[in-house]
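User: Please go through the entry that follows and flag anything odd:
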Amino acid sequence: MHCLIAVEIVLRDRIPDAGRKPLHQLIKQGAASGSLTARQAEYLDHGRQIRNGMARGQSTHAVIPPVMAIPMVTTSSRRSPCASITTQW
């Protein structure tokens, strides 16, 4: 969800008269102006719907303990540019 917040901040900065428009309008405007591809807009809108569901208590997110998370993150980030960064638990 933090990524979605970051993208919303950028859209508010890039879209003229963004003001307090809801995120779905910013996504539509971003796609219309070419700042976002149709696929990016689709993914962002799905993320927005998930975020709204969690904020309204309609859905929850999974929580796993660090012992289970570390192998998953390690596996998924082996090819990442950040793979050389290590964290001690």
Notes: Confidence is low (pLDDT under 50) at residues 80-89. Residues 38-55 form the longest helix (18 residues). Residues 2-55 form one domain.
